[in-house]
Amino acid sequence: MKILKKSEKQQILARHIILANGRPRELLELMRKAYPTPISKAYICQQLSMHGEYAFRSVLRNASIFIDIEVINETDKPTMYRLGNQCIQSAQMRIMFQAMAN
Predict the structure, then answer these.
(1) What is the DSSP letter of 26?
(2) HSE-up of 15 (CA within 13 Å, CB side)?
(3) At CA 25, angle to CA 24 and CA 27, rounded to 5?
(4) Is 37 helix (H, G, I), strand (E, B) or coil?
(5) In sequence order, what are the beta bridge partners of 70?
(6) Which of 47, 39, 36, 42 is nearest to 81 (CA)?
(7) Dihedral angle, C-alpha 51, 53, 54, 60, nearest 10 °
(8) Sheet (strand 80-83) strand order
(9) CA angle, 57 as apex, 55 and 61 as ends, to 5°?
(10) Which residues neighbour 92 within 8 Å (Cβ) at sequence distance 6 or greater?
(11) What does DSSP say about strands 69-72 and 39-40: parallel, antiparallel, or unpaired?
């Protein structure tokens, strides 16, 4: 299987993010810029001027419609979030099958 560069992965993510709009898109763009590094809820809320648990959860839920979002829970550490690899893995599989067909 072809190993994709970070820039290629970010291009794939951008193609999925373009379908979103409003706050979910802002969240996805913020997470794409940090990809593959996870970011904290506090950082997300600060960057997007988001106040309140309900607003955060709502935007997170709506953003996850377009791209899966991984939640990383570790003991004694804040919860972190990062974009999942599902769409990237799908693209890698398509590339692999195209290469096999040629």
Answers:
(1) H
(2) 9
(3) 65
(4) coil
(5) 82
(6) 39
(7) 90
(8) 39-40, 80-83, 69-72
(9) 120
(10) 1, 2, 4
(11) unpaired
- List per-residue pLDDT tens for the chain, 102 residues long: 668 888 889 998 999 899 999 999 999 999 999 999 999 999 999 999 999 999 999 999 999 999 999 999 988 889 999 999 888 888 888 878 887 887
The pLDDT value given to residue 44: 96
Q: What length does the chain have?
A: 102
Residues 16-29 as b/e (b if ≥16 CB within 10 A, e otherwise) read bbeebeebbbbbbb
CA-to-CA distance for 11 and 88, rounded, in angstroms? 10
Give the sign of the dihedral formed by CA 10, CA 14, CA 16, CA 20. positive
For residue 56, give both structure tokens: 């955060």
